[in-house]
Inverse folding.
């Protein structure tokens, strides 16, 4: 469902639905909040670096929540950090997306029983769009998570955000 | 370079009864037991004496000795009553290349230890951690507040053996 299949032959006009155009713009430049927590953040940085090159999907780190589209929760979320993450999330403008990266952010990971200080899943605080399993996930897995998120954005409509 | 017996003798001559004993039966450095209210004076002596020169506090750690009696709480869970909490000081002399470990014990119900902040600055955060995890009060510490747990954590001291985690913290469910 590319946009260019409705291109006119002289090459200067493309016809598209507003929904498709908006979704295409959004999913092609997901600016992620520059934010890392634990060992998953190392994998996230590796994904951003030249070998895996997050930027080819339009993902760049933006160091302010007010201009970020997505936040990747990359690591163990302590109860102390959870209050800060909630505040960062609230400062982001709509539409905003959350990728929960790795076992710790998904469900507490290895801290599920004796982690007196760990939040057992970031979805207890903010709504998650894509869960990426792994401990930590390889860069390929994070890229797959991003492609899932793009798929999700592609099916949204202006009238209603389809969850 | 001095061996533990020599260090113990030096301390015994200087401080007498506040040096409680020497434990040589350890897999690592020998441990000298000292009085918790004089640890800062003993530390200053260890640092300043020309035969000792313990200029580096490598680590300070709190320990729950779990040597009290187990009693049932009103809600039926185990509590520890009596016994002691301990603080270990691992010292190293970068100049004379010798090491020693100091240990102080303090009652669990009112755990108070003199701060060694004025001897080794390392103590600052390490004592805050021991306070955060075990509730040991370091007297004369300049800034004794929690360092790892949230400042408003009210559920107690997590590394005590009878610690119970709360159900909720600021509306977030804590157990799995």
């Amino acid at each position: 469902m590319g946009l260019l299949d409705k291109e006119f032959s002289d090459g200067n006009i493309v016809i598209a639905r507003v929904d498709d155009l908006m979704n295409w713009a959004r999913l092609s430049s997901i600016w992620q909040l520059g934010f890392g927590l634990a060992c998953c953040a190392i994998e996230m940085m590796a994904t951003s670096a030249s070998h895996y090159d997050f930027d080819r999907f339009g993902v760049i780190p933006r160091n302010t929540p007010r201009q970020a589209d997505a936040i990747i929760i990359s690591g163990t979320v302590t109860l102390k950090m959870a209050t800060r993450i909630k505040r960062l999330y609230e400062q982001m403008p709509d539409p905003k997306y959350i990728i929960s990266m790795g076992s710790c952010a998904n469900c507490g990971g290895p801290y599920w029983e004796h982690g007196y200080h760990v939040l057992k899943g970031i979805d207890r605080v903010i709504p998650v769009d894509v869960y990426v399993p792994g401990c930590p996930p390889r860069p390929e897995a994070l890229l797959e998570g991003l492609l899932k998120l793009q798929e999700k954005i592609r099916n949204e409509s202006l009238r209603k955000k389809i969850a | 370079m001095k061996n533990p017996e020599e260090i113990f003798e030096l301390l015994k001559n200087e401080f007498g009864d506040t040096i409680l004993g020497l434990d040589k039966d350890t897999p690592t450095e020998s441990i000298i037991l000292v009085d918790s209210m004089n640890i800062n004076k003993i530390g200053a002596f260890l640092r300043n004496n020309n035969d000792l020169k313990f200029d580096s506090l490598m680590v300070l750690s709190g320990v729950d000795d779990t040597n009290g009696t187990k009693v049932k709480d009103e809600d039926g869970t185990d509590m520890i009553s009596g016994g002691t909490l301990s603080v270990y000081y691992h010292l190293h002399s970068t100049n004379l290349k010798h090491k020693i470990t100091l240990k102080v014990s303090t009652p669990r119900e009112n755990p108070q230890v003199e701060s060694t902040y004025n001897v080794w600055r390392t103590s600052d955060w390490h004592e805050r951690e021991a306070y955060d995890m075990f509730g040991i009060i370091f007297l004369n510490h300049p800034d004794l507040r929690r360092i790892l747990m949230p400042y408003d954590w009210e559920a107690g001291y997590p590394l005590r053996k009878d610690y119970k985690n709360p159900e909720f913290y600021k509306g977030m469910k804590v157990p799995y």
Notes: DSSP finds three helices and eleven strands in chain B.
